[in-house]
Design brief:
mainly alpha, about 0% strand
Length: about 325
């Protein structure tokens, strides 16, 4: 304990010394290139840390993905061939695609509908708090909660799972929701929708409130009501927020790992790319294949990030 405390003190002292040196060097920068020199002193360490912590590991991961299952050996495309030739890995890719297609659309639909319904009602604050609460729970915590909701016991036995208790109360047989495919993937997707709907509601509600009252009143005077008001006024006004929420949730769904790992471990046809990446790298001793799956995830995420950045630049 004393050694760790000493290491912590030394790290703090080193940080203070480095910051003092940077501030001192920046303050001494004078003349024509003074601003550039100060920028280099302040931005340089950050760029260096990003290069060491992100860029270099990315390069190593890409290199290892071309070195066979163990991440060593001669250059080859064998790992990428395996990704698209093995049935279990193809299933994971399909499952990931289903997550990316369903989660953003359903989460945004629920969040937007909820935001419109509770907007400017007496219970707005309480209603929004209730749907936002799942955002305060970790993915693992939410997975444990929903695992109890889906818990299976034979129909004759006392039920622990809420959903099976409801089925039993209405005279139906209890079901093993997390084992029966392909519907078990949809039951896992519900968990993420439950979490992300609150995020979508919060952002879209703020965007709706930012619409000037004058525009809405003018549209009503012109005869716009209900669906036409929503279609021609609300949706175009919140388009940028919709794109931001859509891309953010899509990226989260593309990288989904916690829910699958906690609830099924990727068994019963529920595995996704991120789960196979973890299993290959850390449990099956196949870091080369795991690196290839990581590169695949990076390739899939990149277009969404680029699109999101372009949209944000248009706004700014």
């Amino acid at each position: 304990m004393a050694d760790k405390f000493l290491q912590l003190i030394l790290a703090i002292v080193a940080l203070v010394v480095v910051v003092a040196l940077l501030l001192g060097a920046a303050s001494l920068a004078r003349g024509r290139y003074g601003d550039r020199v100060r920028a280099i002193f302040f931005v340089g360490p950050t760029v260096l840390l990003v290069a060491i912590g992100l860029v270099w590991p990315t390069i190593l991961t890409i290199e290892k993905s071309f070195r066979g299952l163990a991440g060593v050996g001669s250059f080859s495309f064998s790992n990428y061939v395996q990704i698209f030739s093995r049935e279990d890995l193809r299933t994971s890719i399909v499952n990931t695609a289903v997550w990316v297609l369903l989660v953003p659309v359903l989460a945004i639909s629920i969040g937007l509908l909820y935001a419109i319904i509770v907007d400017r009602t007496p219970v707005e604050a309480v209603a929004k708090t209730l749907i936002f609460l799942p955002m305060a729970i970790s993915m693992v915590g939410a997975s444990v909660i929903w695992k109890f909701v889906y818990e299976y016991k034979p129909t004759q036995a006392p039920q622990i799972g809420l959903l099976n208790q409801v089925l039993k109360s209405f005279g139906f047989e209890t079901r093993q929701f997390l084992i029966t495919g392909p519907w078990n993937n949809l039951f896992l997707i519900v968990v993420m929708i439950w979490i992300q709907a609150g995020f979508a509601m919060t952002v879209l509600s703020a965007a709706i409130k930012a619409i000037p009252d004058e525009i809405i009143e003018a549209a009503k005077i012109d005869g716009a009501t209900g669906w036409s008001l929503f279609r021609f006024i609300t949706l175009p006004s919140i388009r940028n927020s919709l794109i931001m929420v859509l891309t953010t949730i899509a990226i989260a769904a593309l990288k989904i790992f916690d829910i699958v790992r906690t609830m099924t471990g990727g068994n019963f046809g529920t595995s996704v790319v991120a789960n196979d990446f973890y299993s290959s790298s850390f449990t099956q001793n196949q870091p080369g294949l795991g690196s290839a799956l990581a590169v695949l995830l990076f390739i899939l995420v990149s277009p969404i990030i680029v699109y999101n950045v372009r949209q944000l630049r248009k706004v700014s």
